[in-house]
Amino acid sequence: MKKLKAGILALFLAIPLAAIAQQPVYLDPSQPIARRVDDLIARLTLEEKTSLLSTTAPAIDRLKIPAMNGWNQSLHGIVWTRPTTMFPVPISMAVTWNPELVQEVAGAIADEGRAIYNYWPTVPGKVEATGGQGQAVTVTANGERFRHNGLVYRSPVVNMDRDPRWGRIWEAFGEDPLLAARITVAYVKGTQGDDPRYLKLAATLKHFAVNNQERDRVSSIMEVDERSLREYFLPQFKAGIMEGHAQSIMSSYNGINGIPNAENPFLLKEVLRDEWKFDGFVVPDSGAVENLVTAQRRYKTLEEAAAKTILAGSDLDNGAYARVLPKALAEGFLTEKDVDQALRRVLTVRFRLGEFDPPSMVPYSKIGPEVIDSEQHRQLAFRMAEESIVLLTNKDNSLPLDKSKLKTIAVIGPFADMAQIGPNYTGMYSRFVKPLEGVKNKVGPETKVLYARGSGILESDNPEASYAEAESAAKKADVAILFVGINQMLEREGIDREYLNLPPVQMQLARRVLEANPKTVIVLLNGGPVSLVAGFGGGQGSQDLDAPAVVDMFWAGEEGGNAIADVLFGDYSPGAKLPYTVYRSVRDIPPMTEYDITKGFTYMYFDGKPQYAFGHGLSYTTFSYSNLRLSSEQVPGNGQITIKADVENSGRRAGDEVVQLYVHEVSPTVKRPREQLAGFERITLKPGEKKTVTFSLSVERLSFWDTNKKAFVMEPEAFDVMVGSASDDIRLKGQFRVTSSGQWPPSSPLTAASPAN
To answer: Which of 161, 285, 552, 656 is catalytic?
Structure first.
């Protein structure tokens, strides 16, 4: 704190005293932000106040208030009118199980966002601003069009991947609340930076809450019990707010328990403000205020709907507020004091972004355009791509491939020569390495590479000819590499999947290529889980595709082609793990409208045998686990236990292992998970190297929500401790007993805001 005060004083002294003396309080950087905000609000007219509650708030020149310039996207790179670095998609970030890397990537993305804000448009010439759904302001300068991005970014998406059919799984961080929470905190911290005074960008958590299906999403109202909310659907939001200190949160279109989330006081006031002490601003999803009148028919006029959302805790909207709040005030639906409260939250974030201070005081104003699409960031995208590739199957050590023994390779499939960038909310790239190019780069001119598309993604113009071409290439090759998967035609915002298998045309392609050459490696490109059951619709009795090796590279960004080549040919040993369960079929899970996960969703409550389990992922080396130690076999209800295990690389090459800690309550009085992730750590070991992995587990993190007591509680009980390489690959087991009861309020940050390691 002393260093912070000294730094602020130094910055203050650097500004000429005469200039400070002439400044109003809100432009005086030496004043507390709260006082500056109040001073500015006092100078605004009512019309100006309501105009500032828009994501495209105009500049107010008389008060030196800059335009807000809309909201923007940064899920896996900055969305702009020029190329930026395209990283692997968010689900790939979860696949790494590496929060430190995710924070580094999010920081690089935010650097590019700041650079765009700092330097565009700076060229001379005619500049014309145009709106457009509040997303950005487009300008024309010297004949070139730019999007002048603001500093508020609508990322990350932190909804739980409850159902594998959900079309936006690729945007989120998996099906487990602890894993999602740790990746959320890392992403938010990387986005907002580590300066104690200023934000690099403002991160927006979305969509709050229980946004888990695309069908009827603007009008659907889900019934969700409070225990499910507290234990499963809210922890990652809580972590992002209480630990990550995200400065913005977006309420979702849907509602829960009878009330649309844009006007839900339980979510926006009781939980968010009162319990979690959120100090940023709330923004309804685009058009959610209008939906209260149209799709949900809650109110007759937009004026009343806008007022109700403000009164419930919303603060900023794409445009409805600026248009209708003056009339809503005149008709008595809300007061100027209510507007001031919302405006105070919005302006506080804008002050923290440095919009009202000299650029010399804001460290992020020095980030230059050289970081945009830089070679350093491309290398970081390459590292993320490598760390997010999962080896699912590897019979008889079919991988890695020895290129010195391969004279001919067949690269086949609709995704082999395709730049699969991801659906909406994806920017532009300057150079995208496709899988076919990556393979060619790796093997060199002495190896012949045959290519056949084989099929389309959903259909082919001439299926038999396409299959025949693929079969011919496969027969001529020493090995075939088949790139198949799904894309935005099957999963994206607005579209949920009907089935989990590959599309029939690709399943047929896979069967025929495997028959033509049994030495075929299948590589998946996908956002959500893909089943390789050989039979449309699948089911427990169906037969899997009998491929010797299966690899999942997801949508791996601009360097994905090089990264998958490194993995296939052994220059990198895969270490990633699945962040969700890959079920064999939709027949194995409840209907998508079932929001009680205890009925059979996720690894925690699924009774069947999945195709690939949560946490699964193989390596080119082997790891042995030994010497499980518990600090105590008896732990009080308010205590914690330390769990240690030794992990050794027992193979012949270096590799990464994600050590996973699971717990299970032996005889619960309420339904509890069969196993639940309680900690994890990704480690790198050389051959023969051994490391002790330590988990510090608070008893509070084992608690469950008691609806009657409105608190998290713990009853005296025995708990199994399980340490292993996946949820279905447990290597070590132990047990301890909680000896006394415990109780924690919902505002306790430890409940889901901190990792167990």
So the answer is: 285
